[in-house]
Input
Amino acid sequence: MITLLATGCSPELRPLAAVYVDEKGTAHALLRACDDDGLVRGPELRGTVLPDTEGATSDESGGAAPEASQPEEPWIGWDTRGPHKAADFPLFAPPSAWGAETRGPQALQPGYTYELAFADPDDAYVYSASVTFDAGQLARVPSGEVLTLRGTMSKEAFEKLARKAC
Output
């Protein structure tokens, strides 16, 4: 007997999100859109506690606890709903027109990993964008450069890559 398993499709991950630190030491988000209106859907910044491998939970058989039994992971940062104009803004101060909901401290925290992400504006799951980092990684980004899912590069190289990704 042959069993077919249903699999879902994931949106294409495109290099359209970046983070950097400006000359004043302020962390920034840089979002780029593919659509003609310059929109992105549901931009968010989620910070979660870095996993502690020594304190990992396990079941009685010694294996890792099933994912379904673990509670939702608490996070800090902000999130939004709906389409918004892509922008360059301080990481913890998204444009007020976005109506972002915030959680926890609105500053980089040690021991947290962050993901800045958004989806395509049509909510069609064609593409998404994200960059994952922690405070130490962001602090090591050289002046004038940005951190993307493809590593550190100049702002100009990121802009070119983003245009090409669309």
About this structure: The CA atoms of residues 33 and 39 lie 6 Å apart. The two ends are 43 Å apart (CA to CA).
